[in-house]
Specification:
mainly alpha
């Protein structure tokens, strides 16, 4: 029974269940992918927020389109059975990697959700607040701005801002989880074979990019809310919470640099593919 279970778990997905000329359909799909990439690949440079890059699905969608377009780079319309079989096998591995990414994104978003919701409830219910002359704040000799920090106008603004940011974090995390719950089965058991999943990807390639955005946004908004939520506890807690809040900006800046670099790396591959029809081999170094 154990051996049967193992064989069931590793059973390969059928490459194609559709009748007719499989290779001709794959060539047509490759031509469609090249057409989707053509306008964006005519540029010299690109970036993460380039509207043309968004049109090809940004990093996630573009990566898949490049793989499909490289199947028939010259547009000859002819594939051998071995080439088609290898492409479908590699595509099956690609979908496994995609599902792994979606699982990871859902996990991170769920963690942010489980932190943000209790914080939102506690903030609505009221948090314990240090008095300005509490021993933790220096007692009767506490700093003057500690007393001003408890002013109603400032705390009122802090309360609104903190609640708004934490609510947005909850929304972003829930949106990311929902997207993952829809996309994971879409690229697994909703569609019976690899070719069908590829055809669906050609229609849906723009949507995958939002999973990363909502997942990162859920964590970043949670970090940004901390100084405002902590303002109701003490000025020390609020000031120290600025450190993780600032990391939401500093980390995003570093990630944006890497994202722009990857976008231009993909653009270079697309330009080569469109220019001379050269096949993109695994492990090729693009300078």
């Amino acid at each position: 029974m154990l051996d049967q279970g193992k064989r069931h778990r590793v059973r390969p997905t059928p490459a194609s269940l559709l009748p007719g000329d499989r290779n001709a359909r794959l060539c047509a799909m490759a031509a469609e992918a090249r057409e989707k990439l053509r306008h964006w690949s005519s540029q010299e440079k690109t970036n993460t927020f380039d509207s043309l890059y968004d049109g090809v699905g940004a990093h996630e969608g573009c990566g898949g389109l490049l793989r499909i377009a490289a199947l028939d780079p010259t547009g000859s319309g002819h594939l051998t059975e071995a080439e088609a079989d290898r492409f479908l096998w590699e595509s099956s591995q690609l979908f496994e990697e995609l599902i792994h990414f979606l699982n990871l994104a859902a996990l991170v978003a769920a963690l942010a959700f489980t932190v943000a919701v209790p914080l939102a409830v506690l903030n609505l219910d009221g948090l314990s607040t240090f008095d300005a002359i509490d021993p933790s704040l220096g007692g009767a000799q506490s700093l003057g701005w500690y007393k001003r920090w408890r002013g109603p106008r400032l705390l009122h603004a802090m309360h609104w801002t903190g609640n708004g940011l934490i609510a947005l974090s909850v929304y972003a995390s829930f949106k990311a989880i929902a997207l993952c719950f829809v996309m994971i089965p879409s690229y697994s058991f909703y569609l019976p074979d690899v070719e069908s999943r590829l055809r669906f990807f050609m229609q849906d390639h723009k949507e995958i990019q939002y999973v990363w955005a909502y997942t990162y946004g859920s964590v970043a908004l949670l970090l940004l809310s901390l100084p405002f939520l902590a303002a109701r506890i003490s000025p020390v807690a609020s000031t120290c919470a600025l450190i993780p809040a600032a990391s939401a900006f500093s980390v995003f800046r570093a990630l944006l640099f890497r994202a722009d670099h990857m976008a231009n790396f993909q653009l270079d591959i697309a330009r080569r593919l469109m220019a001379d029809g050269g096949e993109i081999f695994r492990g090729e170094v693009v300078s």
